[in-house]
Amino acid sequence: MLLEENKLLAPFTTLGIGGPARWFVKAASEEEIAEAAAWAGEHAQPLFVLGGGSNLLVADAGFDGLVVQVGLHGIARTDTQDQSGQVIYQAAAGEDWDSFVERAVADNCAGIECLAGIPGTVGGTPVQNVGAYGQEVASSIERVRAYDLIEHSFVEFTAPECGFAYRRSRFNSTDRGRYLVTRVDYRVTPGAAPTLRYADLLRAFPEGTEASLIEVAAVVRRVRQSKGMLLREGDPDCRSAGSFFKNPVVSEEQVRNIAAVIGQQPPRFPAGPEPENAGRVKIPAAWLIEQAGFTKGYALGAAGVSSRHTLALINRGGATADAILALAAQIADAVEVRFGIRLEMEPVMVGF
Question: Domain range holding 265?
Answer without folding.
Answer: 236-350
